[in-house]
């Protein structure tokens, strides 16, 4: 079993990454290996709706940048996909939405390659906006025909300065339970 966590924050080592790292550490304790992908140092161009992915059907995007194809291929290989974004003006970061738009089109064009994979989103903010951002990311999981387990609360945390989310005990408990549920479900599906 393999997991990938994708950090949509522009700040490496920030609060979004802390939530995702917590998730990966719980999965690792359950025997599921995982990797972190930070979008902070990568260029992901937005989808241009060119339709080439539907014509070519080769699991590739016609738009070229330094990161999309490598990340998309890692998502295809993973059994579990976990996404995280800070709240930017009430919604998910542009980097992660650009990635998800393109990944969604290419995946759909090639037989819906994410169908029945496991995963879920995380959102973190200084004060507010997590609900909408969480829902925005959750819509992607739903339309991609993926399976998202629940947790003890919504997958969100509070923090502005690096590391502040680690002081949000409820967020850490929620992430822990979510990751435990991912591992439990993964073992039921792939005994």
What is the CATH architecture assignment? 3-Layer(aba) Sandwich
The share of residues in extended strands comes to 15-25%
Radius of gyration: 16 Å
Q: What is the 3D form?
A: globular
Query: How many individual domains?
Result: 1
CATH topology group = Rossmann fold
Count of individual helical segments: 6
Mean pLDDT: 97
Q: Roughly how many Å apart are the termini? A: 10 Å
N-to-C SSE string, H for helix and E for strand: EHEHHEHEHEH
Strand order of the largest sheet: 2-1-3-4-5
Count of β-strands: 5
Main β-sheet description: 5 strands, parallel
Which percent range fits the helix content? 40-55%
Supply the CATH superfamily name.
Flavodoxin domain
The low-pLDDT segments are none
How would you describe the overall organization of this protein?
This protein has 191 residues and is α/β, with parallel strands linked by helices. It has one domain: Rossmann fold (3-Layer(aba) Sandwich). 42% of the residues lie in helices and 16% in strands. It is built from six helices and five strands. The protein has helices at 15-29, 52-56, 68-77, 94-109, 130-143, 169-189, and strands at residues 2-7, 33-38, 80-86, 118-125, 156-158. The chain has a five-stranded parallel beta sheet, sandwiched between helices. Helix 1 crosses helix 6. The longest helix has 21 residues, at 169-189. The radius of gyration is 16 Å and the shape is globular. The relative contact order is 0.19. The mean pLDDT is 97.
In brief:
Helix content is 42%, strand content 16%.
Question: What is the topology?
Answer:
Elements: E1 2-7, H1 15-29, E2 33-38, H2 52-56, H3 68-77, E3 80-86, H4 94-109, E4 118-125, H5 130-143, E5 156-158, H6 169-189
Parallel strand pairs: 1-2, 1-3, 3-4, 4-5
Helix pairs in contact: 1-6
């Amino acid at each position: 079993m393999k997991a990938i966590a994708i950090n949509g924050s522009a700040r490496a080592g920030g609060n979004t990454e802390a939530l995702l790292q917590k998730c990966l550490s719980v999965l690792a304790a359950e025997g599921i290996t995982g990797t972190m992908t930070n979008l902070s140092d990568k260029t992901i161009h937005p989808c241009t709706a060119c339709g080439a992915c539907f014509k070519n059907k080769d699991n590739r995007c016609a738009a070229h940048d330094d990161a999309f194809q490598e990340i998309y291929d890692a998502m295809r290989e993973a059994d579990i996909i976990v996404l995280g974004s800070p709240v930017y003006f009430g919604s998910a970061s542009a980097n992660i939405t650009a990635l998800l738009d393109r990944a969604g089109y290419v995946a759909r064009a090639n037989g819906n390659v994410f169908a029945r994979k496991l995963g879920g989103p995380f959102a973190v903010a200084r004060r507010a906006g997590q609900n909408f951002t969480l829902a925005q990311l959750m819509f992607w999981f739903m339309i991609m025909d993926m399976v998202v387990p629940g947790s003890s609360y919504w997958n969100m945390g509070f923090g502005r300065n690096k590391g502040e989310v680690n002081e949000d005990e409820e967020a850490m408990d929620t992430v822990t339970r979510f990751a435990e549920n991912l591992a439990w479900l993964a073992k039921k599906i792939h005994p």
